[in-house]
Amino acid sequence: MLDKELRSMIGDVKDGRMDRRAFIKRMAAVGLTAPMANQILAIGGVAMAQSPNPYPPTKRGGGGPLKLLWWQGPTLLNPHFATGTKDQDGSRLFYEPLASWDANGNLNPILAAEIPSVANGGLAADGKSVTWKIKPGVKWHDGKPLTADDFVFTWAYASDAATAAVSISTYADMTVEKVDGLTIRIQFKNPTPFWANAFVGAYGCVIPQHLFAEYKGAKSREAPSNLAPVGTGPYKFVEFKPGDLVRGQINPDYHMPNRPHFDTIEMKGGGDAVSAARAVIQTGEFDFAWNMQVEDDVLLRLEKGGKGKTIYAVGGDIEFIAINFTDPNTEVDGERSSMKTKHPLLSDPAVRQALALLVDRDAIRKAIYGRAGRATANYLNGPEKFVSKNTSWEFNIDKASKMLEDAGWKAGADGIREKGGKKLKLLYQTSINGPRQKTQAIVKQACQKAGIEVELKSVVASVFFSSDVANPDTYSKFYSDIEEFQIPMTQPDPALHMRRYISANVATKENKWQGQNFPRYVNKDYDAAIAAAETETDPVKRAALYIKCNDLLWKDTVFIPVLHRLKVEAASNTLRPAISGWANETDNIQDWYREA
Amino acid sequence: MSQYVLRRLLIAIPSLLGISLVLFVVLALAPGDPFSDLATNPNVPPEVALALRAKFGLDDPVYLRYLHWLSAMAHGDWGFSFVSRMDVDQLILQRLPTTLYVIGSAQLLALLVAIPVGVYAATKPYSLFDQIANTLAFVGFSLPTFFTGILFILIFSVRLDWLPFVYSTDIDATGIRWVLEMIRQAIMPVMVLGLFQAASMTRFVRSAMLDVIRLDYVTTARAKGLGQAKVIVKHVMRNAMIPVVTLIALQMPAVFGGAIVTEQIFRIPGIGSLLISSILANDTPVVMAVTFVFACLVVLFNLIADVLYGWLDPRISFR
């Protein structure tokens, strides 16, 4: 879509010549859908739509208990220490951010009086500051009022390196100042197109200054409130047993009308995903279970005549096979997969492309992931605005064989192709995980037919995903030729997701393999596009830059996307949870209710 | 005897030190680290993960960490969980009551089944009762608890809908209803675990009884005209119980240590599930504390077993 055309349409919406819905519909027609059309409008100067209110209860409480089952229970309740979604989910019952993302990618105000926009003066035209107005009259659970000071404090707390907060990168590169008692201004160093990060979503929860002031920095672990949160949320803290149970009761002074619906809330932890699915879908012992990493046939079987069902939320999580651009079998200065080496087989683009042709996404989706996955050629799968239309994938063994043949890889006596004395043998690693290992088997079989020998390896997840410097089996060391896992996209903006693969981020011995560019992909064009996108405030140009990045990853076959994965949850038939693919499961917990 | 107990306790100190050293080194050498979640999260810059490692002393050499742990332990400081950032003793105390209740009940059930069945079977060897008891015992200890556990869930929860299969530490009731609910939710795990234990223990009691029942003094006692019940209880059982006491005493630490598999299946928040989740999360301070407590209990119950020997058989002297 032409830049000018878009601009005139935004102008039409602004002046009331076109309504928002028509705009969003037309965006959809050209491939951009609701979430980002809304962001375009916001940055283009039109206030974001307050999402329609689907919440029918007409009074606070009366919904009885809400029983949640998390097969990994929360182990701590400070959102700024949360080492995983389970902790964020548990903290979020009590603490709140200014706003959260709903299923359509709209920002929903929670503690904010309104969503900032250019029109209401919230967004600076130069993209370097955001002003948030805080809803008046909100009280902490202990009765003290919520003020701008609490937000300024939360920023200072989280950005202090000595606190060792996991939210530090959200808050480090900005300053937050108090404008008046109920207004804060966030100042960015550079123009920041994705302004809705601080105080939004999982790491956005505000904590009370009056309880944490003494525990900022080095003393952060000693705060009593780490274990007994006092927030502003719909439920008040009652009890916490790490890994086992979080309990809350209704907050009678909650700041949203008629909310929350449930009188008590309980989040039980432990066990495994299959029995969690059973407790919700089949027996109805619980109302909701999180993250159903269960094969689709099992879920379908449980759903027959059960008391619950599975529900799906679309985000941007991607399951992929990554390709190693360096040589894992040669050691240089005590380091394998060193940047000083080149992969003897995979540095040949023909081999990488042939491999991409050998992954049967359709079969994998049908046989393993079922309703929880969508076949894709893209690394970046959402929001819609950022999804490339230039890519395609196919499964074609003959084409792959021909490609290898043409590139000089001839089949040897054992049927394995070779060239210049190097045999096409690959080590394919992944984490121990049923669906993943089945995928390995499917890919291996196709490779065999094309004359590539694949050796399979699986590593226990707690080792594979660890940052342990001493262990050779981590995904970031990547001491194998190809590897498969999933990277979750944690926010409806691709900046963090795509930034991983710039050259400065290569995982090496020097940075203790903490760099996130584990394929060791180096491309100047990619680096330049990411750098440009990070300060580009024009949403259309910015989207184009990220699409370009995605296309570079596709063209160079850095990743072979296997599936765009959806979030799968189990809910009782009467529960109406508000789930978004762009937020944590409990991020809109105040809107959950049960149908009578 | 008090001198004997004191001496044994003193001997226990070096062995516990040795055990703690081995545990510590093994845990330090084990792969994985507690901040793996941070490594895959693009929101968390590597500096934070590295700073956390440094702050929690994970980058110090092993001997330094061990000495640090030892001196803290001597002061009664058990360390804190990396994952929960909470004190380890608090974490264990939270879990202990549940473990004692569920696993203790299972052990009690095992004893209540095993001793009478084993004794009765031994008095009438190869009778119909003995054969049925033997067969059931074989079946019982051949079936692992993860199998029987799931079988029970499928029958009693899913099909019949009689019992809940998620154990809740927080029952929304008071008074007699609370007690009934507590019993109701413990039935399945206690049965699964108790019957499994009972099966092997029955075999053990039976063979211990058979060893003694054929001895000459038993025949003498019978010849003197003592009644069958008196012979069995006073003469046979007292001697046959010596090996049984050892077995039970050595199983007592398991009561405190929880049953990892059963706790996972029924989501019982006990020490066993704490241990397994801590191992999976590489939360070394918790793993260290739980396994060390376990080691202490083994040493303690060994001592108790030795003292009980002397009471059961006065010929065993304490020297």
What would you note in describing this structure?
The complex is a heterodimer of chains A (596) and B (319). Chain A has helices at residues 3-15, 20-29, 34-43, 85-92, 148-159, 168-171, 209-212, 273-282, 296-303, 349-357, 361-369, 397-406, 434-449, 461-464, 495-499, 524-535, 539-555, and strands at residues 65-70, 99-101, 107-109, 129-133, 174-180, 183-188, 235-241, 245-250, 264-269, 288-289, 308-323, 373-374, 410-411, 417-419, 422-423, 425-431, 453-459, 482-487, 559-572, 575-576, 593-594. With 596 residues, chain A is an alpha+beta fold. Chain A folds into four domains: 1-46; 61-94 and 233-314 and 566-596, D-Maltodextrin-Binding Protein, domain 2 (3-Layer(aba) Sandwich), CATH 3.40.190; 97-223, Alpha-Beta Complex (Dipeptide-binding Protein, domain 1), CATH 3.90.76; 318-490 and 557-565, Dipeptide-binding Protein, domain 3, CATH 3.10.105. In chain A, strands 1, 7, 8, 9, 10, 11, 12, 16, 17, 18 and 19 form an eleven-stranded mixed β-sheet that branches. In chain A, strands 4-6-5 form a three-stranded antiparallel β-sheet, with helices on one face. In chain A, strands 13-14-15 form a three-stranded antiparallel β-sheet, with no helix packed on it. In chain A, strand 2 (99-101) and strand 3 form a beta hairpin. In chain A, helix 8 packs parallel to helix 9, helix 10 runs antiparallel to helix 12 (397-406) and helix 11 (361-369) packs antiparallel against helix 13. The radius of gyration of chain A is 25 Å and the shape is globular. The model of chain A has no long low-confidence stretch (mean pLDDT 88). Chain B has 319 residues and is mostly helical. Helices cover 76% and strands 0% of the residues of chain B. Chain B contains 13 helices and no strands. In chain B, helix 5 runs antiparallel to helix 6, helix 5 packs antiparallel against helix 10 and helix 7 (145-159) packs parallel to helix 11 (260-266). The longest helix of chain B has 39 residues, at 175-213. Chain B is globular, with a radius of gyration of 24 Å. Chains A and B meet through helix 6, strand 9, helix 8 and helix 15 of A and helix 2, helix 3, helix 5, helix 7 and helix 12 of B.
